[in-house]
From TrEMBL:
One of its GO terms (biological process) is SCF-dependent proteasomal ubiquitin-dependent protein catabolic process. The keyword Plastid does not apply. Residues 73-368 form the F-box/LRR-repeat protein 18 LRR domain. Residues 21-62 form the F-box domain. Keywords: Ubl conjugation pathway. This is F-box/LRR-repeat protein 18. PANTHER family: F-BOX AND LEUCINE-RICH REPEAT PROTEIN 18, F-BOX/TPR REPEAT PROTEIN POF3. It comes from Bos mutus. One of its GO terms (cellular component) is SCF ubiquitin ligase complex. It holds the Pfam family LRR_FBXL18. InterPro entries: F-box-like_dom_sf, F-box_dom, FBXL18_F-box, FBXL18_LRR, LRR_dom_sf.
Length: 651
């Protein structure tokens, strides 16, 4: 509570209002916009003025604000709409189209993200027609989209847009042809090969469209494809236009494709043109375009900030000599994806196997650090998956006691401010992958994954600023004691993904996991994939102590759950809006639990999304189709964020 009187009974030094305006503004910047404007502002005169400060109303972020109801959003726009210049409603799937239309009242908008919001062509036209200052736009293009329904005012707005993020659920150019000033284009292809009725889709639906994209001002081109031939067919149509004339200012070209993607004559011409005419800062290509190609020898790089050579046949010598040029240009490098490159961190030797040792000299060149002392050049036992390179490092004292000795752990010790870490066995395959086909028969763990046990996991606890952690296919975890260390020491942890830990036939870390969860007070997302997992009262009781939890996904082949424990957990954790449970329970049990959860909690949680379904049921694909994409990306389907998401491409 706040007191406006001059004679407040509490001394200023101990009273919230005793802080300077600068400190109060910083504190208020962490409050959701709906709470800030509709609640906090009404507490006292001083906070009423501060809550309307332009530094707080300039940018409104509603994504993941699951308590932002239809009424709250409408009132928020009415109160501060004229001051908002940046608005993100990404993933606000629970808001109706009529509520989204209120964005048109924010006439000063420069950037708006409406990905995941229900938008028809006519509704989009109405909104954009009222936003003459718009320069950055993110939308979805769904079945039924018709560019001919866009008004002249809407097209005028689009002609000034410089950044476009477009997610395609149907074969279409979307609004790209209208964006004649594009400098940054991000395309996400999520088109299913068949419609709900079973009809086969084709990219030829786009051939008859009169307008084609304009790329002459393009600086960044990024395309990420979900599995399916139709997505490859449609992206080829986008690339065909790009291959006619390579933009002279192009500095980032990235295409992320699951599986194989055959090179065509048009793409070959495009790559040759880029090699001749542009100097890139970021590059990612399908592996089939790079393997056996001399392309990298001719590519020019200026100040590289991101490279991805995922699953390419790239040797350590090739990486250093032809791509990185001896490490001289790495000061600007923020991301390097070498996942699936069996020999990229190994010395050039034809007789070496993929499981052979990592060459410390290559990591030294990549990290631009002083040579590792001779004692560290012993045969490394560390995990060789992938790390982001380029983080400023400073040595700091770790926990007492012996530490794992390897190149990887030496690197980990020198990046104390790391906020995202993934340890994923190179042979891991999820039962519900994000950008790969599901594989039922997984391969055995690689030798490096087998070297990561409880002690190595416990060492992660030294990363006090860690926010996002993924551990997958680590068979040498015996007790889960390392998880307890993470829970105790990594107090900033917000998202946790655990998959296939310990031996596959038995869940050996339940006790450690339960103890860990008791300390994760800031955990918002939990994804757990483990065969034979028993989601019983003990588990949900421990999980209930994660008071900030918002999203839960459990994937367990032959796993079980206790419906009463799930209902009790949902009643205790008031912020949970996503509950996805895929186990070995029967269809009738799953349906009964799902209906009970929706009946009990949907009225008070407008963003509630519940899916309870047997993991191996033939109808699972149709069920997943109805899950909001934000949850597929964030928590439901497994993916590596470090490997699959280039840094700093979108605001």
């Amino acid at each position: 509570t706040c007191d406006d009187s001059d004679t407040a009974p509490v001394a200023d030094s101990a009273h919230l209002l005793g802080f300077s305006d600068e400190i109060l503004l910083h504190i208020l910047s962490h409050v959701p916009s709906t709470d800030l404007v509709l609640n906090v502002r009404r507490t006292c005169r001083k906070l009423a003025a501060l809550c309307l400060d332009k530094s707080l109303t300039h940018t409104v972020l509603l994504q993941k604000d699951y308590e932002a109801s239809e009424d709250k959003v409408k009132r928020l726009v009415k109160e501060i709409g004229r001051d908002v210049q940046q608005l993100s409603m990404a993933g606000c799937y629970w808001l109706s189209g009529t509520t989204v239309e209120h964005v048109a009242r924010c006439r000063g908008l420069v950037r708006v993200n409406l990905s995941g919001c229900p938008l028809t062509s006519l509704r989009l036209s109405k909104v954009l027609s009222a936003l003459p200052h718009l320069r950055s736009l993110a939308i979805d293009v769904s079945p039924g989209f018709d560019a001919s329904q866009l008004s002249s005012e809407c097209k005028a707005t689009l002609s000034r847009v410089r950044e476009l993020k477009q997610t395609l659920y149907t074969p279409s150019y979307g609004v790209v042809p209208c964006c004649t000033s594009l400098e940054k284009l991000l395309l996400y292809f999520e088109i299913l090969d068949r419609t709900r009725e079973g009809a086969v889709l084709s990219g030829q639906l786009m051939v008859g469209q009169s307008n084609v994209p304009h790329y002459q001002h393009l600086r960044v081109f990024y395309a990420r494809l979900a599995p399916g031939y139709i997505n490859q067919e449609v992206v080829r149509l986008y690339l065909a236009v790009l291959s006619d004339r390579t933009p002279e200012n192009l500095h980032a070209f990235l295409i992320s494709v699951p599986g194989s993607f055959a090179e065509s004559g048009a793409t070959r011409n495009l790559l040759e043109s880029m090699a001749r005419n542009v100097a890139l800062d970021a590059l990612q290509l399908p592996k089939s375009w790079l393997n056996g190609s001399a392309l990298l020898q001719h590519m020019k790089f200026s100040s590289p900030f991101y490279f991805s050579f995922s699953r390419c046949a790239l040797s350590g010598g090739h990486l250093l000599q032809r791509v990185i040029d001896g490490g001289r240009d790495l000061q600007s490098l923020a991301g390097l994806n070498l996942s699936g490159c069996a020999h990229c961190l190994a010395p050039d030797c034809l007789l070496r196997k993929a499981e052979d040792d990592i060459d410390p000299a290559i990591l030294e060149a990549l990290a631009d650090r002083a040579p590792i002392p001779p004692t560290m050049r012993a045969v490394p036992r560390g995990f060789g998956k992938k790390v982001r390179i380029g983080v400023q490092s400073a040595p700091f004292p770790g926990p007492a006691g012996p530490q794992p000795s390897s190149v990887f752990w030496s690197l980990l010790k020198n990046v104390p401010f790391l906020d995202r870490l993934e340890l994923i066995g190179s042979n891991f395959s999820s039962a519900m992958p994000r950008n790969e086909p599901a594989i039922r028969n997984s391969l055995p763990p690689c030798s490096r994954a087998q070297s990561v046990g409880d002690a190595e996991v416990a060492a992660i606890g030294q990363l006090a600023f860690l926010r996002h952690l993924t551990l997958a296919q680590l068979p040498s975890i015996l007790t889960g004691s390392g998880l307890v260390s993470i829970g105790l020491q990594c107090q900033q942890l917000q998202s946790l993904s655990l998959a296939h830990l310990g031996l596959m036939g038995k869940v050996v870390y339940m006790s450690g996991l339960s103890d860990m969860l008791k300390h994760c007070k800031r955990l918002k997302d939990l994804r757990l994939e483990q065969p034979y997992f028993s989601a019983n009262a003990q588990f949900f009781q421990a999980l209930s102590q994660c008071s900030a939890l918002q999203r839960l996904c459990l994937v367990s082949r032959s796993g079980t759950l206790q419906p009463e424990a799930v209902l009790a957990f949902m009643a205790r954790c008031l912020h949970v809006v996503v509950c996805h449970l895929f186990t070995g329970e029967s269809l009738s049990t799953c349906r009964s639990l799902q209906q009970a959860l929706l009946r009990s909690f949907q009225a008070e949680r407008p963003a509630l999304n519940v899916v309870v379904f047997p993991l191996l049921h033939e109808g699972l694909t149709d069920v997943i189709r109805d899950v909001p994409m934000v949850h597929l990306d964030e928590v439901t389907l497994f993916k590596s964020r470090v490997a699959e998401e280039p840094p700093n491409l979108w605001w």
